[in-house]
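Aim 2 progress update. The chain analyzed this quarter is reproduced below.
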Amino acid sequence: MIRKILLIALAVFVGGQCINAQKKPKTPDVPDGIFFKIEGKGLKQPSYALGTMHYVHGDYMHHIEGFDSILATIRCLATELKMDYILHPETVEVSPDFQLTRMDSIKLNSMLPDIIAEFQVIDAGTPDVYERTFNAQQLDSLDRAMEYLQVDDLIRGLTQMQGQEVPAGKIYRHSSPLQLTRLLQALSVTQAAKYFVEHGYSQDYQQLDHKVMLTVNEMNEKQNANILCVGLDSTYAYRQMQENSTTIKDLVADLTSEHMARLIYRAAINYHRVGQTFEHCMPLYDQGHGQEVVDAMSAIEQKTYSDPQLVDGRNRYWMEQLPALMKAQPTLICVGLAHLVPTAGSEGVLSMLKKKGYKITKLK
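Predicted structure tokens:
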């Protein structure tokens, strides 16, 4: 059980490490935007591609001119994940289990309880785990990130609801690192929801790609639309990405409270940067400046956006499926914007389609 919690709770750290930026590959001239029409190459009816940005409110689909009417014409929805992942996540194994050795599993189960206990010790005369691990400047950055994400407020509320005494000072520093990683993931979504509510969106927050999938599912169930729903990724693709992740292996190799503190530090700093960048990027996204959005996000998540398998490998795997889908019926491709436009790791799906002879037109 502890191993599975770690796999889920710590997966977020994979994208938080940076490497040197790479130059983008040369690509054909494709229009900059977030929503596109795809024609030519013998297609009887046009297909479309919508580039989503993580955390964009689902109701934004109604703010894209013509999107609702176009959605009524498609006969296939091609997304990154299968529809079942959204409708019934408890029944879908998205990624295969990390193959930890028996000795690694024993090590995790035997050492984690003591390590977690180190974080929860409160002694005014003894430095906490974070004070032992980081210098003053790093601690200040971590405190500001946690304040931005309002971590202490949430922990305080949860602690009071459970009838427990709230520790003084920086509450997050005495919380279980596993609980903290789950809170950081949840709070990143909460911050996005808060942003949109403040800008006039409904409080019924769903991410844009999920909203599109749920809308199509409702069309199928209530209107008998009979729209084919395709998940472009596969178990194989997830396994390839997973085998190249060093997060869990790295943790097991250095299983100490200080190392877990560094993982939390990386996640908090990354979410802080992502949150601030999102606030900068949303107006650009709304104006249809897709390339600027991806450039801004990739500047803070360079490893993610330049990963050859996470981006380019999946793009090429999808390209083995998309031409046949579009030829068979008008298709809406709804995937992350970074898969459509050029990044340090890939020329992008739109460029790949244009090389094959398709005409790409910007709609937004």
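The longest strand covers residues 47-52. The chain is about 55% helix and 10% strand. These observations will guide the mutagenesis experiments scheduled for the next reporting period.
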